[in-house]
Amino acid sequence: MISLIKFFAINIIILISFNTKANEENKILFSIKDQIITSIDFKNRIKYQQLLNFQINIDKKNVLDDMISVLLFNENFKDLKKELNTNEVNKFYKTIFDKFNILSEDNNLKKIYNTLNKENKIQNIKYDLQRKIIIEELIKKNSKSLIEDNINNLDINDYLIEYVSINKNNNILIEDILILIDFQNIENSLKELDNNKIQYIYKKKKVIYFEKLDKEIQKAIKNNQENFIINNKKNIIKGRIDKEFKILKNLKITLVQIITEKKIHKDKLKCDKINDFLKNNYIEIKEHKLINYEEVNEQIKSKLNQINDFYYIKNNKNNKNNYLILCEIKYDKNQAREININLKIQDMAKKIEDEFIKNKKIKYNFVLNNE
Question: What one-character-per-residue DSSP string does 190-203 give?
Fold first, then answer.
């Protein structure tokens, strides 16, 4: 009798332990409509993303946001009564997963590949394709305006704008603000603003739509200025502009090198004034015609991004001044245009997705479990 009691007691403990472990492993994360998503579903999506990106370390917060996104699009796809092309699904499956067949069994990604069954892999591909189809359809409505808008704004430079905006209601002189903000040491500058309890907005962003920039920033870019200040009725804004060439194949540049014992004022360092230097015997001029941009020294690259940009270096061996002036840029305009359009499409796709998620969370009764 005692043995029987022990038997039942042990089995109850095992059952409780098993259920506790199961609950820990399979926690409810969120629900969409009548579908409950658990931590096991999430772990499978993580595995899929690891395989898709071919890397072990991925941001779990991004995976969770991505999972919420694809499942909201999944509900919308069903509402629209759309169907996926089986051949398209199979094509993506081969593209993503065929490469894992040649990996050794001790490879960490191969181990993840083996733990995710084919049905789960295909389902995740379907989620991604459904989202892709819906976003592409929404983009098509605006794609014509994107292309037309881009024709007159072909540009081979990427512009990165960093700025601090301070409301004039803060009790601080404009001159003090301008001195306080140092983009070479921006973290300390922002700490100083915090310490002085000065409210501000700090942003750093890549320019996608040139025509949507503030007129003063457009003017600064056109004038090849590295810094700008905007002083309007409400705010004082101090900013910096960094630029670099877009990654283009077969990008070539022509550099004119001026070697002289005397220093030359920067206003004279222009491509259309090169012939003026030929009259001076003490000046040596060399032309480096259409050299591959990729082969140029990185330090020089950082200073040369548009016509008439120059780079200065002092040759200590002969005590001469060397100036390199960018006088020609040769590139594929169709490729540059395509890159610009793709950047705008990517930006539009992100905005469409964000707006879609915001609206569909309400429609499909999204509930996040915060426990």
Answer: HHHHHHTT--EEEE
